[in-house]
Specification:
The protein has 260 residues and is an alpha/beta fold. It has a domain at 90-234: Nucleotidyltransferase, domain 5, CATH 3.30.420. The protein is 40% helix and 15% strand. The protein has nine helices and six strands. Strands 1, 2, 3, 4, 5 and 6 form a six-stranded mixed beta sheet that branches. A hairpin with a 7-residue loop joins strand 2 (112-113) and strand 3. It starts with 5 loop residues before the first helix and ends in a 5-residue tail after the last helix.
């Protein structure tokens, strides 16, 4: 059975809310519920196919939806970021941003016709990572939205979780080569190093491409190793982002030396 290691659980168990009302049945074991959510994230199985060990699928799914709406997984991710920075430290002023498209066969919130996949329903996951590839901010949107439209939201999320007290460099691909985005980040004491978009250049020369952008692409691959995120089955935005935050927390704890 897939279960979350107790080292991980001990770090985040206080963030899991207790049942407030004493009416009705006693609350089902929170650790086992959390393990059931972890199983669905890792395997991508349907909730109804959750093994009996974890409890009734309706109970585990109900807890997941309540915790997602209450932003519990966001709190876990913030705790994981702090733990990571306390253990490993901050890695310079360099960050990277990139988006990845995922299939959404069931549709739902923040989905759209993917222009790169025969207009099938899809979503985009946008991420900012540090120099080691630690996932520090994740947002979601429709697949038919240009990558550049997610930069401001994702950067603002980064600022809310990480202290940026000095000039910061954000590396990106040519999708973010925009005067508007450069001006926005400049106002935030940041420098955007975006690869040059050849369609916007009147004079052809060797196009600039920032180094080490592959780091954020590698982190997207790490997150997609969770089969529950390789294809988005969640219809609701909060549940999809809950899974994203959970997967990010797992990666952050792994990079901090905790076996998940």
């Amino acid at each position: 059975m897939l279960i979350v290691a107790y080292e991980f659980w001990n770090e985040i168990k206080d963030l899991i809310p207790e049942k407030k009302s004493k009416v009705g049945r006693p609350e089902f074991d929170k650790k086992r519920s959390f393990d059931g959510i972890f199983f669905v994230l890792r395997t991508g199985c349907q909730w109804k196919n959750l093994p009996d060990y974890y409890g009734k699928p309706t109970t585990i799914h109900g807890k997941f939806m309540r915790w997602s709406r209450a932003k519990v997984f966001d709190q876990i991710q913030r705790k994981a970021i702090k733990f990571y920075q306390d253990k490993v430290g901050r890695h310079g002023i360099w960050y990277a941003i990139d988006s990845i498209s995922v299939k959404t066969p069931l549709g739902g919130q923040k989905t759209g016709n993917n222009p790169t996949d025969r207009r099938k329903k899809g979503s985009k996951r946008t991420m900012i990572v540090d120099q080691r590839g630690a996932p520090l901010a994740i947002t979601a949107g429709a697949a038919n939205t240009h990558d550049s439209q997610f930069l401001k939201e994702t950067f603002n999320l980064l600022k809310s979780t990480v202290s940026l007290n000095e000039t910061t460099i954000i590396a990106a691909d040519s999708a973010y080569d925009s005067k508007e985005l450069r001006a926005f980040l400049r106002s935030q004491n940041c420098i955007l190093l975006a690869a040059e978009n050849k369609r916007r250049k009147k004079v052809m020369h060797k196009l600039y491409k920032p180094r080490h952008r592959w780091i954020v692409e590698r982190t997207h691959s790490w997150i997609s190793n969770n089969r529950g995120l390789k294809i988005r089955w969640a219809k609701h935005e909060e549940s999809f982002l809950g899974f994203c935050a959970f997967a990010s927390s797992i990666q952050l704890f792994k990079m901090s030396g905790i076996f998940v």
